[in-house]
Amino acid sequence: FYNFMWHAGNRLRLMDLILNQLALANSLVLFSKGIPQTMAAFGFKYFLDHTGCKLVYFHHRVGTGVSFSTICLLNGFQAIELDPSICRWLELKIQSQKFIGFCCFLCWVLPLLINTSVLFLVNGPLDSKNLSVENNYGVCSWAMPERVGTLYTITYFSPDFLGLGFMVWASGSMVFVLHRHKQRVQQICSNRLSSRPSYEARAIGTIMVLVSSFFAFFSVHSILTVCMTHFKNPGRWIADNSVFVAS
Q1: Among 26, 233, 134, 222, residue whose Cα is nearest residue 241
Q2: So where does this one cross the membrane (predicted)?
Q3: Which pLDDT belongs to residue 132?
Q4: 182-191: long-range contacts (C-beta < 8 A, 24 or more apart)?
Q5: In terms of Cα–Cα distance, which of 174, 151, 167, 172 is closest to 217?
Q6: Which run of H or of E encompasses 239?
Q7: What is the rounded CA–CA span in Å between residue 60 and residue 67?
Q8: How distant is the alpha carbon of residue 193 from its chain centre?
Q9: Phi/psi zone of residue 197: left (φ > 0), alpha (ψ -120 to 50 degrees), beta?
Q10: Following DSSP, what letter does each residue of 157-205 receive, concatenated?
Q11: CA 172 remoteness from chain centre
Q12: How far apart are CA 93 and CA 98, in angstroms?
């Protein structure tokens, strides 16, 4: 829908630019690896060649990174719109379509740079029975030199953990602002109205549920990804569940 509105020439809101990119990134995640993984689960094995495996893993990792970065951007945009005093120097900048477009562009740069290594690490299905060096995930294989495994893990997850910290801060700021506004409203409302669940309380509950769910899924995905990177032949169970949690 957002892509259709974009190509139809309709003027989008600033938040629509972010949501448009988020829809594109999520579609990239679902279609790049979700379809091959589903086909492999139904018994279609070795239908990806050497180049296909590289492209599938590369697009999946890039889509996951862009999706996460865009969610962080959306959280920050909502927090500053709700309370401009959080960051005064960004109060006017976030009203500019060019600035939001530049931020969306930055969301692509880091995932593209970090995940170029995937093109060198991922290979096609293993034909030999010697699995001592590479990890076989049924469809594709993964070769990670031991001397760079830790460095790759730190490089890959550092931006995500920084983004997660920013997301928690932005969500906490919104919860604080909504809670403070709720207290002010209760002081001027009658007891009959204040006894009802307020819009602020429902918004706070929604934010807490979404952030907690995202934090839980992200933590599990990080653990599974580390296991896939460092363990020798972690098994199809870890590979399949890592794709499911990432989706």
Answers
A1: 222
A2: 99-122, 161-178, 199-224
A3: 42
A4: none
A5: 167
A6: helix 236-246
A7: 10
A8: 39
A9: beta
A10: HHHHHHHHHHHHHHHHHHHHHHHHHHHHHHHHS-HHHHTSPPHHHHHHH
A11: 19
A12: 9
**31: its two tokens:** 């279609």
Token readout for 142 is: 């993964």
Inside any domain, residue 142:
no
**pLDDT reported for residue 129:** 47
Residue 134, domain member (yes or no)? no
The sign of the CA dihedral 210, 115, 35, 5 is positive
Domain total in the chain = 1
Beta strands in the chain (DSSP E): 122-123, 135-136, 141-142
Residues 103 and 95 sit within 8 Å (Cβ to Cβ): no
| Residue bearing the bigger pLDDT, 166 or 50 | 166
pLDDT digit string (tens) for 86-99? 777 676 677 778 88
SS3 call for 198: coil
Q: What is the token pair recorded at 144?
A: 């990670």
Looking at residue 233, its pLDDT comes to 63
Residue 141 placed within a domain: no
* Angle at 133 (CA atoms; ends 132, 139), nearest 5 degrees: 95
Torsion region of 233: left, alpha or beta (phi above 0 gives left; psi -120 to 50 gives alpha): left
Name the band, by pLDDT with cuts 50, 70 and 90, for residue 128. Answer: very low
CA distances for 196 relative to 187, 188, 189, 236, angstroms: 14, 14, 11, 50
* CA gap 72, 170 in Å, rounded: 8
Does residue 192 register a pLDDT over 70?
A: no
CA 171 to chain CA mean position, Å: 16
On whether residue 130 sits in a domain, the answer given is: no
pLDDT at position 133:
41
Reported pTM: 0.78
